[in-house]
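queue> holo job accepted (S-adenosylmethionine)
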Amino acid sequence: MALLEVENAVRERYSQGAQERVADLCCPVDYDPRYLKLIPEEVLERDYGCGDPSRYLREGETVLDLGSGTGKICFIAAQVVGAAGRVIGVDMTGEMLEVARRNAPVLAERLGYANVEFRRGRIQDLALDFDLLDEELARQPVTSAEGLLRAASLADELRRTRPMIPDGSVDVVVSNCVLNLVDGREKERLFQEIHRVLRSGGRAVISDIVSDESVPLALQQDPGLWSGCISGALTESGFLAAFEAAGFYGIRILERQQEPWRTVEGIEFRSLSVEAFKGKEGICLERRQAVIYKGPFREVLDDDGHRMRRGERHAVCDKTFRLYQKEPYRSSFELVEPLEEVPLEAAQPFDCSRTALRHPKETKGQDYDVTTEAAGSCCAPGNCC
Ligand SMILES: C[S@@+](CC[C@H](N)C(=O)[O-])C[C@H]1O[C@@H](n2cnc3c(N)ncnc32)[C@H](O)[C@@H]1O
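queue> job finished
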């Protein structure tokens, strides 16, 4: 199938789904009922999700929802992030956007603040705002081959000068049952776009339909199965690998539906929610820090290739040390600072390509020979020792 054929089949099906509830589009989800009370009924009834990424959001965050449909996840997110946060929904189907945009002021009125907006575009091309492009094309309609080339260059200029979602502008990218609808030939670009729009330290929380075996070509070429979240599903491991290939780290499965949502020709399709972080890029500097992996596994391998043996003091660069202070690593490591801090300006390059141990003398200083009394109350009368 041609790229546009796939996209048109998806758009047509969801255009219909925006106007009336279509029962077999994706699986039922239990959302937090506290957040549903304020959301208009027509939004709730046209729910085509398969998970609930909004559960993992925090107050004050800027959130981007890919394939926002009639806006349900955006409207839940608006309440979780509060008046200090912001939510942007992107969808390519005009009819879906129409319902979402019509209901945004209704929710704002009920909440007492307005922090949600919707934009029209394709999630594999988050720089191009279709509404802006339409405005330009209305001024300069395409009526010839030259006009088509001019339109392509206009689109490039819009991406550069007025991007729909600028680089590094978002704290969290969420999506609910949409990534599978993007053709396999554009999936790599899609994951790169998610990475591009996130700020360093930001994260993606994505719920989607995945399969336990690769989807055979015959199923991939069925337009009905495309829009029904089957044909374009990645395998479970392929889904995680796609985040890895785009440069994410700390990737983990948050939820995996136990029973399959559908089984087609023996292949099981189920919902998976995954979290992945951006921000492992940057230079590696030596500041004599060490980390100790706490277990329970004998050893682990991180996304930069550091192999950490349980209980050992591993030498790490400043960047890795800082990453391990945060989610998702925080609870798995003890962090050991040097006794004397190495100022950032004085730090030398650190070779992150090898796994090295850090002797305690390196942390404390070679001349360290202090002897002390027992510290704190640990050995006070009645306590241990
Ligand atoms: C299965 S529905 C999910 C809607 C919503 N996330 C929810 O939880 O109800 C898929 C949505 O993604 C949109 N969509 C599919 N492919 C898209 C693409 N490439 N770019 C933008 N939107 C897309 C469809 O228009 C539709 O609204």
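queue> The mean pLDDT is 93.
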